[in-house]
């Protein structure tokens, strides 16, 4: 695999959710009337930094709310969690309480992270309240359709609540566990190659190591690994082709070096083809949902003309495929990517 370094120089704008996208979300039961919205959580008067166990700044802040607002916010957040997890069944939150609310100024969506705890056994969970961004919603939907993972979220107006995706942050895994003696490095490298391929085909950008997690599952004779994206803000916006290739981010260099050490060109190609086959089967099984999403997104203004032209030129050079010059939108580009995958698998 090639190594390199790519930077995103400008912050992506937040794109509003169009009427057509809202109609799509209603049909697939992704919309809801939330008791607490993103702007309610912005009404804090002060905050202090959240430090990790080693005393380092986590880039999260803990906001302080007026005392008369806390009960309302906590009650609303518990109801929102019940809507996210159990279609609004409040019995699941009877013995739960909101332990903390954290706020992150870093990144595009400026999320709130909510920690909810079961007072009977101290088991806790997290969920997130974010600004609803069309780019992110399209990314979540494409993740649901094409990846082996399920995503859980709800949208109400300009607010989005999203399930926590459990796993070891990719940057932490690279520092502390990548070379663990009990872990098969070939399995880890294989997963990174497949993840890289899926991001490229579906145009999921900015997959630096802190934007994905590693999930580890013990098997009867080994450990299985899965990389899962946790940030979908850079879904088909940027024009630089390398933004959609995790191998070119310096933060992912440990994974690239592992792949170069343990994989050959032949095995890399094999794993890319495996991922292409998986995407082809998903495209066929979810063809009606995919068509509906395409019909919505192709009308949406979710990038710039300059970015679209830059990306289609980069893909033309990468694949030597003149058909990319005919693409007039990011949706056209993804559609061509998927058609090319189907052709290659069936060749």
Please explain how this structure is put together:
- This protein has 347 residues and is an alpha+beta fold.
- The chain has two domains: 19-133 and 152-163, no CATH class; 168-346, Phosphatidylinositol 3-kinase Catalytic Subunit, Chain A, Domain 5.
- The protein has eleven helices and ten strands.
- It has a seven-stranded antiparallel β-sheet. Strands 8-9-10 form a three-stranded antiparallel β-sheet.
- A hairpin with a 5-residue loop joins strand 4 and strand 5 (124-131).
- Helix 4 runs antiparallel to helix 9 and helix 8 packs across helix 11.
- The longest helix is centred in the last third of the chain and has 21 residues, at 265-285.
- The radius of gyration is 21 Å and the shape is globular.
Please sum up the structure shown.
The protein has 347 residues and is of the alpha+beta class. It has helices spanning 19-27, 38-41, 67-86, 134-146, 170-176, 185-202, 253-262, 265-285, 287-297, 305-319, 330-346; strands at 46-51, 57-64, 96-104, 112-118, 124-131, 153-156, 159-163, 168-169, 212-218, 223-229. The protein is 42% helix and 18% strand.
Q: Indicate the radius of gyration in whole angstroms.
A: 21 Å
Helix content bin? 40-55%
The CATH architecture designation of the largest domain is: Orthogonal Bundle
Low-confidence stretches at least 5 residues in length (pLDDT < 50)? none
Task: Name the strands of the widest sheet in spatial order.
Answer: 1-2-3-4-5-7-6
- CATH top-level class of the largest domain: Mainly Alpha
How many domains? The number is 2
Terminal-residue CA separation: 24 Å
